[in-house]
Write a structure and sequence with these properties.
mainly alpha; Penicillin binding protein transpeptidase fold; three-stranded mixed β-sheet; 11 helices; about 5% strand
Length: about 240
C-alpha cells in the first residue's frame, strides 16, 4: 500500500503542475489576443444581464471615441494614467491610511489599468485572491497592451449605467449621439457617474453630478496641455 501511494503522489503532482501550466499559458494567450480583439463578454456584463439590468454595449475603435471621453475619464478617474506603471502608489497609501480609521468611508485607489484588469479578467469583490490576481493582470496588460489599448478597452467595457457598458452605448443612451460627437460637458457628465453608475444619473444630472462634471471639465482644460496626456488620447 505504501509503495502504491509513493507512486500515486508524484503522478498526481505532475498532473496538477501540467494543469496549472496549461491554465497559465491559456490566460497568457488570451491577454495577447485581447491586445487586438475586444473581450467577447465580461463577468460584470454577464452578471448585469442575469440580474435583469440588461446588457447594452457597442464596441468602437480608439479613433472613433473622440478626444473628450478619453480626457474626461483620465481627469475623473486617474490623472497619473500616462505616467504610472499601472499603480498609483501615493493614492494607494492615502486610501489605506483613510480606511484604517474607525467608521471611515472605504476609499479605493484603483487606476484605469487596475479597473480594466478587474472588469475584463476577474469578478467584483474585495477578497485577497481577487486583489492578488488584479495586480498580476494589471502588470501584464501594462507590459503587453500599452496605454492606448488599455484606455480603449476601458472605455469599451466599463459600466456607465444600469446595463450600459462602454462609451458608445452610454453616449447613445444618454445623449442620442455617437461618442465622437460628445461635448466636453457631456463626456464629463458620463465620467462623473463612474464611481457608482447604477445610482448616479447622467441625464438629467443631480446637483452633485453636475457640480462634479464641472470640476472634471476644469481638470480636462488643464490636463489636455500636458504632452503625456496628449500622446495617450490622440489617434493611433
Amino acid at each position: 500500500m505504501a509503495i502504491k501511494l509513493k507512486g500515486i503522489v508524484p503522478r498526481t503532482w505532475r498532473k496538477i503542475k501540467r494543469i496549472f501550466l496549461f491554465l497559465f499559458l491559456l490566460q497568457l494567450l488570451y491577454i495577447f489576443i485581447l491586445k487586438w480583439v475586444n473581450p467577447p463578454v465580461t463577468l460584470t456584463q454577464l452578471n448585469s444581464w442575469v440580474s435583469g439590468h440588461g446588457l447594452s454595449r457597442d464596441y468602437i475603435s480608439f479613433d472613433e471615441m473622440g478626444v473628450y471621453p478619453k480626457l474626461a475619464v483620465i481627469s475623473s478617474e486617474d490623472q497619473l494614467f500616462p505616467e504610472h506603471n499601472g499603480f498609483d502608489v501615493k493614492s494607494i497609501k492615502k486610501a489605506m491610511k483613510n480606511n484604517e480609521k474607525e467608521n471611515a468611508r472605504v476609499k479605493g485607489a484603483s487606476t484605469i489599468s487596475q479597473q480594466v484588469a478587474k472588469n475584463v479578467f476577474l469578478w467584483q469583490g474585495r477578497s485577497w485572491l481577487r486583489k492578488g490576481l488584479e495586480v498580476y493582470f494589471t502588470f501584464m496588460i501594462e507590459l503587453i497592451w500599452g496605454k492606448k489599448r488599455i484606455l480603449e478597452v476601458y472605455l469599451n467595457s466599463i459600466e456607465m449605467g444600469k446595463g450600459v457598458f462602454g462609451i458608445q452605448a452610454a453616449s447613445l443612451h444618454y445623449f442620442k449621439k455617437d461618442a465622437s460627437k460628445l461635448t466636453r460637458k457631456e463626456a464629463a457628465l458620463i465620467a462623473a457617474c463612474l464611481p457608482n453608475p447604477k445610482n448616479y444619473k447622467v441625464n438629467p444630472p443631480t446637483k452633485y453630478i453636475n457640480s462634479r462634471a464641472n470640476w472634471i471639465v476644469g481638470q480636462m482644460n488643464i490636463l489636455q496641455k500636458y504632452p503625456g496626456v496628449q500622446d495617450v488620447i490622440t489617434k493611433n
